[in-house]
Amino acid sequence: MPATRSSVLRGGIAVLAALPLLTLAACGYGSEAKTGDSSQKVAAGAKKIDGLDSVKIGYFGNLTHATALVGVQKGFFQKSLGATQAKYQVFNAGPSEIEALNSGSIDIGWIGPSPAINGYTKSDGKSLRIIGGSASGGVKLVVNPEKIASLKDVKGKRIATPQLGNTQDVAFLNWIAEQGWKVDAESGQGDVSVVRTDNKVTPDAFKSGSVDGAWVPEPTASKLVAEGGKVLLDESSLWPDKKFVITNIVVSQKFLNEHPKAVEAVLKASVDTNKWINANPDEAKAAANKQLEADSGKALPAKVLDPAWKSIQITDDPLASTLDTEAQHAVKAGLLQAPKLDGIYDLTLLNKVLQAEGDSTVDDAGLGVK
Q1: Using alpha carbons only, how large is the chain's radius of gyration in Å?
Q2: Mean pLDDT, residues 76-83 taken together
Q3: Which residues contact 315 (CB under 8 A, 6 or more apart)?
């Protein structure tokens, strides 16, 4: 990566960071989830960690945030934090979660790579650190098979992505460029029409025919398949070993510096949750769906949940080299000036937890704190 530090995004993306806040203004940065977990009682004699009354944790109501969903539902976070309360906030968009992290409304969050990169570069490397991994995969190009029979048929069609400059948008723009096609990144116009559409709206847009397909994360991809769509491409097939980061764990640098024991406790809960998910996939899938229902009021039907769950890999490894590659894709698309990502990772506490568990440590691809 070039060593020149950048401000960030071009004008369109800078505006983008503020847009989700308008839609969320009525409920703050994100919707509140329940505090702690009623099924997980604080052990007798438990003490507060770092003297904190609470640790505020943010995540999305997506299956790609399965670690957070299951950790909340099964009480892993509360158990690890002892008498310090785990408080939760659910977000719909990465920029709003970054704003909440910057303001102190949350301390730690599960988030995609593009918002993490944007948040870090916009702050000149002072706002956050990536402290762990959570998930790989779970992103697909789903199309209307009556309109698109092969990858070459995508040219000239209307394809949805969740948001200008988000992780899937960048991946799709990069894939378009690799086909030799031209698209203006900010307007989405060109050989393919890239239609930025909220994941909640995309299934209806697909059903109505206003878009011909979508490059989207789970469970939206499987919702489209349930509506008659066909998976044309699984993004994991484009990556070495079929692995790429879709969800990271981030923390504000201020909170990390002031409360490392609390951060370590949350990371231990994350590692314990991931171990439980991988050992109990069916129970974990049910737990994630139960938390989705608690957060959104609606569980996923089996025809959506089952295929979506299978396409996501739960991991402690942040897959740092793939984040570096995703940043390069954003630069190539013209959405990001060449960033200096040195120091975006601090995996010290995660590796401490992994070593204590007898597990292999993970690598920061040379982008860690020196």
Answers
A1: 20
A2: 97
A3: 133, 134, 135, 136, 243, 274
